Amino acid sequence: MNRSVDYRKRGQAIWLDSISARMIATGELAGRIDSGAVYGVTSNPTIFAQAISKSDGDYDPRIENLADEGKDAFAVYDELTRGDIAAGADLFAAQHERNPEDGWISLEVLPSLAFDVEGTIAEAQRLHRLLGRPNVFIKVPATPAGCLAIRKLVGAGVSVNVTLMFNRKHYRDVAHAYQDGVAAFLAAGGDGSKVASVASFFVSRVDTLVDKLLGEKAASAPAALRGKLESLRGKAALANAKVVYQDYLAAFGTPAWKALAAKGARVQRPLWASTGTKNPAYSDLLYVENLVGPDTVNTVPEKTLEALLDHGRDLGDTVFEGVDEARRTLDELRELGVDVEALGEKLQGEGVVLFEKSYDELLGVVEEHRRAAQLESARTVKIRPL
């Protein structure tokens, strides 16, 4: 493994975008932590759906016990996910104690609450209370309703990971919501060091959609324009992220924020999400090596983590490089009818639907396991010798 790459010295933490009961039970996650490979974990309904559906029985004993207690599918899901997150948080506890910016793990509110302010607040507070650990982020989507909820949650001292951000408006709204929440928390006498946040900005999905649109346009474009369209493939996502990092520097460089920071407030770090490369023609570390810089997090899927450990390169503080070019790229795309800002709204809406679908599938899987456990329990009772 390539241990020469250390993005920590540049202010970036690598997190793992995956968790499962097996990863915890086998010591795999503990090994990643102890080796310094990862400094946090993120989860979402899709990750848990895959973990449970492909678990090969890892969750069955817990599901059977919960079924015996008469728990319905949601209650079983709730216990399973909170159990994994609590166990993961405990594994990260020592890392978090050494540095409170490290050792975080995230659990998302129900996707069905994406447009429900009060429902999001209530669910986030419930999870925060039940988990009861200082290194757990509650994930809230960056929808308009989510941003209103973020203000209230941060104001109440709940640390949040804001997810499903795809454009500059999403980022700016989230930064303002966090700052408003921090201001309220401090005004109420809160300790600024006790509340934190990351802003999860999705990267590769932007290229997936933009490249598709560019390909469609190129197919019917005159030769002179076709080359221009093709030359922009694979550039939108990094351009979008680099410009957003400049928005971060601006948002957390104002006199108003500096006054809050002087009272102990912590910056809301940008977190690069969806950084696994989906196009095999691109480098498998395209969205990792080119977004390194201070106060950032990159949460990577397992395959991307393995690639980083195997052949990752330190190319410097790359998030600062090519910012003017990034702005030109976004302008050129807009002029060609591919507005990344507008597409961000489409991607966020699709993201909510995708997580709702994953959640529904997850409940279906849990229900199948729950019923199977009940049948097995009933069969065992029937054949028990007198």
- DSSP summary, beta strand count: 8
Q: Provide a count of the helices.
A: 16
**Ends: how far apart?**
59 Å
Basic shape:
globular
CATH topology: TIM Barrel
Q: What's the CATH class label? A: Alpha Beta
Q: Note the beta-strand portion.
A: 5-15%
Count of discrete domains? 1
Q: State the major sheet.
A: 8 strands, parallel
- Gyration radius (Cα, Å) is 22 Å
Report helical residue fraction. 55-70%
Spatially, the strands of the biggest sheet line up as 1-8-7-6-5-4-3-2
- Find the structural class using helix and strand composition: alpha/beta
Could you name the ranges where pLDDT drops below 50 across 5 or more consecutive residues?
A: none
The quaternary organization reads as single chain
Query: Considering the protein shown, what is the CATH homologous superfamily?
Result: Aldolase class I
